[in-house]
Specification:
alpha+beta; Ribosomal Protein S5, domain 2; Alpha-Beta Plaits; 5-stranded antiparallel sheet; elongated
Length: about 230
């Protein structure tokens, strides 16, 4: 097995990432230098590098556009760039701020995240130690404020019910704590999609609950697994 390969037994089934959307921005001023941090959820290297390129165009007059990203459920892809700052003073501290971020007590599982720090030099040299602290603090401060979600690999199960009862059943399932993954419709029925942990006991329990809620008139039809965003409680 290659050194960077991940065995099926060790593959992650849940991790934390940034909420989907246009991204999150935060700015610090340190000794008259402006550090503008942009965080965005990115699913691959192309998306991460595209973000860096777009910020180079937006902040074309800035001296540095330093970056770091971590990708994949197992965080197997990790890259950083100092973009002209002294080696090791920008990109690596930024990357460490991403990979060492605790998303729960003792849990460091943030991934599919790119951080870009745009620096406008303020005329005062910070020194190597000062730069390390500034870039690390910039990313850490932004992460402390950015919205996060859990991303979990779940089994998608269909429940087919008449249109008239679909709304009530969906509300009952949500109230019971189940994650809904959308719905589809045909002429006679609504197909509710439940996202369930891919475990036999959990699927059996959900089937029993569904039977109780519908007096046995609806069945749980397991399908494929998908990555689903789940709110952090």
């Amino acid at each position: 097995m290659p050194d960077d390969a991940v065995s099926p037994e060790s593959r992650a089934t849940v991790y934390t990432t940034l909420a989907a959307g246009a991204g999150f921005r935060h700015e610090l001023e340190i000794k008259r230098s402006r550090f503008i941090t942009v965080l965005r959820r990115t699913g691959d290297e192309e998306s991460a590098r595209s973000l860096v390129a777009s910020l180079r165009r937006e902040f074309h007059d800035a001296r540095h556009h330093c970056s770091a990203f971590v990708l994949g459920p197992d965080r197997e892809v990790q890259r950083s760039s100092d973009d002209g700052e002294p080696s090791g003073t920008a990109g690596l501290p930024m990357l460490e701020a991403l990979v060492k971020r605790e998303t729960a007590p003792g849990v460091t599982d943030l991934s599919d995240a790119t951080a870009v720090v745009v620096r406008y030099f303020g005329g005062i040299l910070l020194g190597s130690g000062g730069l390390v602290r500034a870039y690390s603090e910039s990313v850490s401060s932004a992460l402390a404020l950015a919205p996060l979600v859990r991303r979990q690999r779940l089994r998608i199960c269909d429940v087919r019910v008449p249109h008239a009862s679909a709304g009530r059943l969906e509300n009952d399932l949500r109230a019971a704590g189940y994650v809904m993954a959308g719905a589809s419709y045909d002429a006679q029925t609504t197909v509710l999609r439940l996202a369930l942990p891919d475990e036999p006991d959990g699927l059996a329990l959900a089937a029993d609950r569904l039977g109780a809620l519908t007096a046995g008139s609806a069945a749980l039809l397991p399908g494929e697994t998908e990555w689903i965003d789940v709110a952090i409680s």
